[in-house]
């Protein structure tokens, strides 16, 4: 009812792999036939595993437990999608795939650049110069193609994936030298390459440590029938994130932090680049690194994208889509918790995250000023226009992500302290000021009532504008009446 009638979804619904039979394990179906009945009558059109519906659909129809009308409608939805995709006109793909077009590679590079987030940049150590510099590039994620990619990545042609090492090699000019060492693995406890890493660092002006995590399936791991990886006690792959790889801590695994500390003892500037699929505990790294760059899994052009940012060919503009905690004891930690839901402090540490939702640095500085809020309408239909001026006070052109948060000051039931309701990424030339305009409609002020409908309730709302969830220097209240 919700999906197809209220939301007007007109596609078809597919189960997860073996999830229909999974109803037996959950204790809501007696066998595969019973699971098929429940799933089909709930609107599941396609059994992804192709093992549970097979045979059972026909038997259930003969038994009068599913109708021919529902079968016809389900088939119709699947065939409609195939017609739209042109699968009846072109049912086969080319046997020999074509190389990636250059436009696709550039798009992958741009997507990675825009998602990379600069978390720390003490004394503007970044960007690095390209000429006459000795750089140590150290870490398990510096030259590993699969650690750049996400879970369930199929085997790749090595030439198609640009690692950080390849990206750096394409940037350095005029007598610069790159000293590379793997140093350690993600999870393995071996330290046999520590000395090589230390030697590389000693010869260098700055050390770039590329660490973090991995969802790389080494294709020798064992997996469940659903595709979920099994954690092995007999071998240690880099994989520490992905389906089947849960964590009881969020620390850097293996010898990574130990290697960081050994490099720190040399007194060299450290730039930490993180390639990972989940937030990690970065307290020591934050206190002891000169810069931190969060790259997540940057994809096939990730090495070029990271190099673009490290060497200043691209001004970072990524913002955190999550909050990064100080410890697992803070979890869950998120910006829009309900008021008084989280303690403001713990005995051992602050209650705030290390890096909050929406946070990210730039190579330039932006100043927020001159907020103007105008309201038209009432609780039935409202439009609130928010206007602010953003000035680029730095020495570089840059992109700023302007974020608008809303707080329902007094409501019938408890609501979050603030909720992100709009954002825009804008490019501002150095020294220039740009006006940014947002129009907030009903959805920015609505509450979900007990009747399942979204409605605006009469009252006061606070509009907050800034660069992250914990930095909203511009605020103004409005009142919406019936």
Strand segment tally: 15
**Tally of structural domains:** 3
CATH topology title of the largest domain = Rossmann fold
User: Helix-strand pattern, N to C?
Assistant: HHHHHHEEHEHEHEHEHEEEEEEEEE
The largest beta-sheet arranges its strands as 1-6-5-4-2-3
Average pLDDT, to the nearest integer?
93
**Main β-sheet description:** 6 strands, mixed
Supply the CATH class of the largest domain.
Alpha Beta
Give a written overview of the molecule.
With 482 residues, this protein is an alpha/beta fold. It folds into three domains: 2-85, no CATH class; 102-314, Glycoside hydrolase family 3 C-terminal domain (Rossmann fold, 3-Layer(aba) Sandwich); 366-480, Immunoglobulins (Immunoglobulin-like), CATH 2.60.40.10. The chain has helices spanning 2-6, 22-25, 32-41, 56-62, 68-85, 102-115, 164-169, 194-202, 256-264, 283-288, 302-310; strands at residues 117-121, 134-138, 177-181, 206-212, 270-275, 291-294, 366-377, 382-392, 398-408, 419-428, 433-440, 447-448, 454-455, 459-466, 474-480. The protein has a six-stranded mixed β-sheet. The chain has a four-stranded antiparallel β-sheet with strand order 10-9-14-15, with no helix packed on it. Strand 12 (447-448) and strand 13 (454-455) form a beta hairpin. Helix 3 (32-41) packs across helix 4 (56-62) and helix 6 (102-115) packs across helix 11. It starts with a helix and ends with a strand. The mean pLDDT is 93.
């Amino acid at each position: 009812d919700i999906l197809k009638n209220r939301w007007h979804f007109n596609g078809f619904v597919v189960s997860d792999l073996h999830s229909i039979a999974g109803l037996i394990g959950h204790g809501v179906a007696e066998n595969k036939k019973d699971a098929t009945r429940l799933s089909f009558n709930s609107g599941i059109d396609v059994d992804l595993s192709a093992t549970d519906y097979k045979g059972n659909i026909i038997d259930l129809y003969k038994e009068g437990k599913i109708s021919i009308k529902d079968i016809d409608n389900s088939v119709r939805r699947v065939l409609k999608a195939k017609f739209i995709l042109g699968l009846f006109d072109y049912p086969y793909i080319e046997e020999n795939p074509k190389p990636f077009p250059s436009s696709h590679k550039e798009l992958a590079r741009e997507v990675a650049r825009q998602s990379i987030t600069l978390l720390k940049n003490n004394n503007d150590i970044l960007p690095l110069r390209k000429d006459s510099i000795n750089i140590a590039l150290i870490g398990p994620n510096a030259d590993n193609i699969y650690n750049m990619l996400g879970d369930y990545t199929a085997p790749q042609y090595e030439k198609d994936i640009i690692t950080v090492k390849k990206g750096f090699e394409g940037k350095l000019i005029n007598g610069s030298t790159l000293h590379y060492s793997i140093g350690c693995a993600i999870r393995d406890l071996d330290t046999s390459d520590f000395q090589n890493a230390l030697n590389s660092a000693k010869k260098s002006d700055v050390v770039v440590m590329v660490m973090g995590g991995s969802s790389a399936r080494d294709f020798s791991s064992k997996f469940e029938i659903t595709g979920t990886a099994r954690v092995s006690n007999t071998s240690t792959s880099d994989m520490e994130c992905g389906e089947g790889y849960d964590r009881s801590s969020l620390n850097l695994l293996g010898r990574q932090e130990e290697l960081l500390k050994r490099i720190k003892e040399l007194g060299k500037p450290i730039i930490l680049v993180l390639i990972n699929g989940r937030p990690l505990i970065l307290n020591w790294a934050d206190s002891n690194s000169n810069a931190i760059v969060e790259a997540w899994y940057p994809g096939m052009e990730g090495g070029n994208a990271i190099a673009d940012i490290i060497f200043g060919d691209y001004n970072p503009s990524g913002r955190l889509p999550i909050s990064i905690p100080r410890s697992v004891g803070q979890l869950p930690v998120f910006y829009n918790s309900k008021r008084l839901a989280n303690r403001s402090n713990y005995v051992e540490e602050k209650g705030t995250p290390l890096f909050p939702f929406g946070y990210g640095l730039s190579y330039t500085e932006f100043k927020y000023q001159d907020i103007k809020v105008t309201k038209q309408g009432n609780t039935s239909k409202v439009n609130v226009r928010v206007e602010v001026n953003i000035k680029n006070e730095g020495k570089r052109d840059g992109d700023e992500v302007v974020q608008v948060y809303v707080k329902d000051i007094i409501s019938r039931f408890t609501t979050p302290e603030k909720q992100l309701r709009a954002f825009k990424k804008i490019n501002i030339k150095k020294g220039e000021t740009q006006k940014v305009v947002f129009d907030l409609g009903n959805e920015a002020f609505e509450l979900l009532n007990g009747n399942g409908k979204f409605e605006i309730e009469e009252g006061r709302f606070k509009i907050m504008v800034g660069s992250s969830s914990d930095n909203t220097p511009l605020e103004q209240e409005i009142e919406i009446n019936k």
